[in-house]
Amino acid sequence: MPTAQSAFARTTLHGAGLTFRPATVEDVRWTADLQTAREPDEPANEAQLRHWWQFHDRERIDDRWIVEEDGAAIGYAYLGHPDWEKVPMRAARLVAWFPRDPARPARLRRALTVLEPYAITDGAAVFTANTVEGFDDELDALVAHGYKEERRSTSWELDLVASRATIAAMTDASRERMRDEHVEITTIDVVADPRSGGSST
């Protein structure tokens, strides 16, 4: 069950001329602005980000830091993984985001030299990282650091206004099929015995 948090990393990290300060709720807006500046086509939702940060899954580790250099905030870093008992492969996701500028690749690699030893101490055996199309400098930095590309994924944008009629028709067809197959989606309060999956009459 998620629990509320106030500090979002277990410890402060130092190395490569950087300080990884545990993020707090006061850092949400700054981080949202950084994410939006990185990807203007995908602006960050500050309220959603605050919710993700504050309500933590007890079966996961999610460490979040503000990366500082000479006392100034320059980036955001993250280490995340499920409880190791649930994931024997022990893969940890590492994130180090910095603004779009010529210093970004070097900063990314410096950040990884801090995050990776910490992840190993935490029990990680595999590191994963990701970037997005158009961030060739980040991809090149990850490859130069020893990472190899495993897969690419594609995302789509759905125009709800232009596709309104199509979506409405699909919805009607799905509802009709559910009625024909006696499928009902309901809420837990109307189920007689939630463990049995049966419904009340």
Question: What can you see in these coordinates?
Answer:
The protein has 2 domains: 2-144, Aminopeptidase, CATH 3.40.630; 157-201, no CATH class. Helices cover 32% and strands 22% of the residues. The chain is globular, with a radius of gyration of 22 Å. Helix 1 (28-38) packs across helix 2 and helix 3 packs across helix 4. The two termini are 31 Å apart. It has 201 residues and is of the alpha+beta class. The chain has 5 helices and 8 strands, in the order βββααββββαβαα.
CATH architecture of the largest domain: 3-Layer(aba) Sandwich
Query: Portion of residues in helices?
Result: 25-40%
* End-to-end gap: 31 Å
User: Within the CATH hierarchy, at the fold level, what is the topology of the largest domain?
Assistant: Aminopeptidase
Largest sheet entry: 6 strands, mixed
Q: What are the low-pLDDT stretches, counting only 5+ consecutive residues below 50?
A: none
Which secondary-structure class do the elements indicate? Answer: alpha+beta
* Extended strand count: 8
Q: How large a portion of the residues is in β-strands, by DSSP E?
A: 15-25%
Radius of gyration: 22 Å
Please identify the top-level CATH class of the largest domain. Alpha Beta
Average pLDDT, all residues:
89
Number of continuous helical runs:
5
Could you say which overall geometry the principal axes of the C-alpha atoms support?
globular
Total domain units:
2
| CATH homologous superfamily grouping of the largest domain | Gcn5-related N-acetyltransferase (GNAT)
Order of helices and strands: EEEHHEEEEHEHH
